[in-house]
Design brief:
The chain folds into two domains: about 5-125, Ribosomal protein L10, N-terminal RNA-binding domain (Alpha-Beta Plaits); about 130-170. About 60% of the residues lie in helices and about 15% in strands. It has six helices and five strands. The N and C termini lie far apart (about 105 Å).
Length: about 170
């Protein structure tokens, strides 16, 4: 590979590693073309980029980026799933895919500047979606307001009940 081509690849990877939010590294030795195509299709559906990178080029590209925390993971044939929006999506897809395909072995993950081991990736994969977590948080935040309104409503109902009882007593 000519030097200019390597420099271009390093520059492109450096840009990607600088802005990535979530990523998963995996060893893909033993995977065939069909399995790789299925994985690419699943990842593309979630706007996740899948790259097979040369380890030496990746190590050079990650210099001066937060992605450098994964430098020692680049050994052997390495597959990198990069997400620029959802930090959990690569972990969800690759953990599910690894359950079906034993030829892919998860190595490590990256979540907003922090390294995640394989157990951490499995925990991330088990998290509910962002929308579900936001709705749960909103429900918890609404709880005190709902209770306050219920209390005020209870006071009003009791007051009306007492006034009705007084009115009925006077009319009898």
């Amino acid at each position: 590979m000519p030097g200019q081509e390597k420099a271009k690849i390093i520059e492109e990877l450096h840009e990607k590693f600088s802005r990535v939010k979530g990523a998963v590294l995996s060893d893909f030795s033993g995977m065939n073309v069909k399995q790789m195509s299925i994985l690419r299709k699943e990842l593309r559906g979630q706007a996740i980029e899948l790259r097979v990178v040369k380890n030496t080029l990746a190590k050079r590209a990650m210099a001066e980026t937060p992605f450098k925390v994964l430098e020692d993971c680049f050994k052997g044939p390495m597959l990198v799933a990069l997400s620029y929006q959802d930090v959990v999506a690569p972990a969800k897809i690759l953990v599910d895919f690894a359950k079906k395909e034993p030829n892919i072995k998860l190595t490590a993950g990256y979540v907003e500047g922090k390294r995640v081991d394989t157990e951490g990736l499995k925990e991330l994969a088990n998290l509910p979606s962002r929308e579900v977590l936001l709705s749960k948080m909103l429900s918890v935040a609404q709880g005190p307001t709902r209770n306050f309104v219920g209390t005020l409503n209870g006071v009003t109902v009791k007051l009306v009940g007492v006034l009705n009882a007084i009115q009925e007593k006077k009319t009898v």
